[in-house]
Automatic annotation (TrEMBL):
GO biological process: epigenetic regulation of gene expression; regulation of developmental process
EC assignment: 3.5.1.98
Keyword set, alphabetical order: Chromatin regulator, Hydrolase, Metal-binding, Nucleus, Repressor, Transcription, Transcription regulation, Zinc
Top-level taxonomy: Eukaryota, Viridiplantae, Streptophyta, Embryophyta, Tracheophyta
Location within or outside the cell: Nucleus
Enzyme class: hydrolase
Organism: Phoenix dactylifera
Pfam family, one: Hist_deacetyl
Residues in Histone deacetylase domain copies: 31-331
Name of protein: histone deacetylase
PANTHER family tied to this protein: HISTONE DEACETYLASE 18-RELATED (PTHR10625:SF25), HISTONE DEACETYLASE HDAC1-RELATED (PTHR10625)
GO molecular function list: histone deacetylase activity, hydrolytic mechanism; metal ion binding
């Protein structure tokens, strides 16, 4: 006779189906999102006897009507039929129209099974047939938009299951749902599907890198908090850099997620469980350990009576993903106490992000109004050394700073997943992930003022031998900084504020700044961003800059002309920050040697009055730099609009050939195009034509 079931044992569902392995690259090319991901997980769980202690479920394909609840009919029809014979000759071409997507003869079935599996396990947990469940599914889903596959995702599995519980099974009593997305990439698709719905509290912690990390869109910002009745129910925690680990995630759990979850009191929790923030993941550049994941999950089990559904998303190191899922399975089974410890302290940037998130959302969640203890804010640690291997060999060994080697899952990621590799990459540093807070910067040379010979770079914020504490004064004054060049792209400009550099992979080529920016002393984000056009001529000149290398950079003709039009992205920042941006922009000049900065402010309040009266103000202290002339372009909301360009005398030198005039490099031009297109000013084709016209038309 069979032994009676232990009533204390948690009923954990476990779903895996080999049919989802039939989705693979069409010609057997190496790719990070491959069938071995879920096979490695299943083999690890089997070796530990986990399936025998769980309730193993079979996958079922999702009905079209349930998929269509979050996706358009057109998208459902495409994905459901893409594997059929009639698409054999068009499959590759169709895939190329999407962002980081492939299709083969098994894609339709696998996508339907992944979505159906989430519906199956979610319904059983909601009913109470299961206490919790793990769905080992692929392809992943959280990037999939209502009408678009992207980022390896075909259908949005978690969103489909969430909508099913909320709208198709109201009798199950699921009125409030918490979706936690801990994948290293922002869950843009899930966010957009529930952005106005207060029944879903969506929480995503992800690498953002000031908008440069995949999916490289603004919607991963902490400012995106939901809309209409959903305002306050969308929480983004956007890491400023890679190398975040257990301590960083625990800090966010303790100071953001858990206080909000306690206030919200969800009926069920769904986890978009990507494991690409794990140690050694070749795409994530972070370092969560299996113990870290288990602790993150354990802390969530105190809510919704432990009703948790885990759905696999990303994760591309087979060892890390297998060990991490195993650790989570053991937590759900509650068979053994957690063993481990976190000795490191969170990164300095982690506390900064937490403060920004809490400030943005405290009116919706009073629990976030609690000030962080000062002892936490001064804590800082050196980040762990993570290296990214993007070589084409089948296996590569790289060395970290201490000389220890780490073997990473190898693929030729550069050509396959160009958009997902938009990381801060230091080409000369063996493809290391570069953290803005830890980039070695060269000491800027300074011009010391006669009144304050001991002033320090970059511009002190307190008295130095009797100097005026100008930073505190100028921090109280706001201006609009108008950018018409590379800073039109928001991630680029934020490097001048936060520090660091943006390096993107575009069609297999590394593009972006050659040198990092030191950033402003005040790293606060702009209070507002708007666009306008100005009656000035855009042109490109100079031939070499230390930050961009060979090629010209953008300038505005100092004199206005009603027949000219230039696009300008305007950032509302403090006059203190404008001074810091001005200093950094003028370290570009290379033809006559590096320019010198200033130990005192370059532009003060009285200077703005002079610039307003004369429409421009040449700064003698910056005469060796590229952008020594301040243009006054009027006012917006009673604040002055300022930008920087060359002097009128340099226009004559450009015309005569004394100073070089040359078109922009491909990397610089692509950055301008990104700014114009992502700023929703003009189309990509129009942006390219606009820049080409500026580069070829004679002064």
């Amino acid at each position: 006779m069979a032994a009676p079931e232990d009533p204390r044992r948690r009923r954990v569902g476990l779903l895996y189906d080999e049919r989802m392995c039939r989705h693979a690259t069409p010609d057997g090319e190496i790719h990070p999102e491959n069938p071995d991901r879920i096979r490695a997980i299943w083999q690890k769980l089997e070796s530990e006897g986990i399936p025998q202690r769980c309730i193993v479920l079979s996958a079922k394909e999702a009905e079209d009507k349930y998929i269509a609840s979050v996706h358009t009919q057109r998208h459902v029809k495409l994905i459901k039929n893409i594997s059929s014979k009639k698409f054999n000759s068009r499959r590759l071409r169709i895939a190329s129209n999407f962002n980081s997507i492939y299709f083969n003869k098994g894609s339709s079935e696998a996508a339907s099974l992944a979505a159906g599996s989430l519906i199956e396990v979610s319904e059983k947990v909601a009913k109470g047939d299961l206490d919790s469940a793990i769905a080992i599914v692929r392809p992943p889903g959280h990037h999939a938009e209502p009408d678009e596959a992207m980022g390896f995702c075909l259908f949005n599995n978690v969103a489909i299951a969430a909508n099913f519980l909320l709208n198709e099974r109201p009798e199950l009593g699921i009125r409030k749902m918490l979706i936690v997305d801990w994948d290293v990439h922002h869950g843009n698709g899930t966010q957009n599907m529930f952005y106005k719905d207060p029944r879903v509290l969506f929480f995503s912690v992800h690498r953002f890198d000031f908008g440069s990390f995949y999916p490289a869109r603004d919607d991963g910002s902490y400012c995106m908090i939901g809309e209409g009745p959903g305002a306050g129910y969308n929480i983004n925690v956007p890491w400023e850099q890679g190398q975040c680990g257990d301590a960083d995630y625990m800090a966010v759990w303790d100071h953001v997620l858990l206080p909000v979850a306690e206030s919200y009191n969800p009926d069920i929790i769904m986890i978009s469980a990507g494991f690409d923030a794990a140690v050694d993941d070749p795409l994530g550049g972070c370092c969560i350990t299996p113990y870290g994941y288990s602790l993150m999950l354990k802390k969530l089990m105190g809510f919704a009576q432990g009703k948790i559904v885990m759905a696999l998303e990303g994760g591309y190191n087979l060892k890390s993903i297998a060990n991490s899922v195993l650790a989570c399975a053991k937590v759900l089974l509650e068979e053994k106490p957690l063993v481990g410890s976190i000795e490191a302290q969170p990164l300095e940037s982690t506390w900064r992000v937490i403060q920004e998130v809490c400030h943005e959302l405290k009116t919706f969640w009073p629990a976030l109004s609690v000030e962080l203890p000062q002892k936490l804010l001064v804590s800082c640690r050196r980040p762990c050394s993570i290296e990214l291997n993007l070589s084409s060999s089948s296996e590569s060994t790289v060395e970290n700073d201490e000389g220890a080697s780490t073997t990473l899952c190898a693929t030729n990621f550069v050509d396959i997943i160009e958009p997902l590799s938009k990381l801060n990459i230091d080409e000369d540093n063996h493809w290391k992930a570069v953290a803005p807070d830890h980039i070695p910067t060269k000491q800027s040379s300074v011009v010391l003022s006669e009144e304050c010979p001991n002033a320090q770079a970059l511009m002190p914020d307190k008295n130095v031998d009797g100097c005026t504490p100008w930073r505190s004064v100028l921090s109280e004054t706001e201006v609009w900084y108008g950018s018409y060049g590379s800073n039109m792209w928001n991630p680029e400009f934020l490097c001048y504020i936060k520090g660091g550099k943006v390096r993107c992979l575009s069609y297999g080529q590394v593009e972006g700044m050659n040198e990092p920016c030191p950033g402003s002393r005040d790293k606060s984000s702009p209070k507002d961003v708007i666009w306008k056009t100005v009656p000035h001529r855009l042109f490109f000149a100079r031939s070499l800059t230390c930050r961009w290398g060979k090629g010209g950079v953008a300038f505005l003709h100092p004199e206005s002309n009603k027949n000219d039009k230039a696009y300008m992205c305007m950032y509302r920042i403090t006059l203190e920050q404008f001074n810091d941006v001005l200093l950094q922009e003028n370290s570009l000049h290379q033809e006559n040697g590096r320019s010198q900065g200033a130990g005192t402010p370059l532009l003060v309040l009285s200077d703005i009055g002079v610039a307003a009266e004369n429409k421009s103000l040449p700064l003698e202290a910056l005469k060796a730099g590229c952008y020594s002339n301040i243009l006054y372009l009027g006012e917006e909301d009673n604040l002055p609009i300022l930008t920087m360009t060359c002097s009128c005398s340099e226009i004559d030198q450009f015309r005569s050939g004394e100073l070089p005039v040359s078109g922009p490099s491909n990397g610089y031009m692509n950055t301008l195009v990104r700014g114009l297109v992502e700023g929703k000013q003009i189309t990509r084709e129009e942006a390219i034509a606009y820049i080409n016209d500026a580069a070829t038309r004679e002064l």
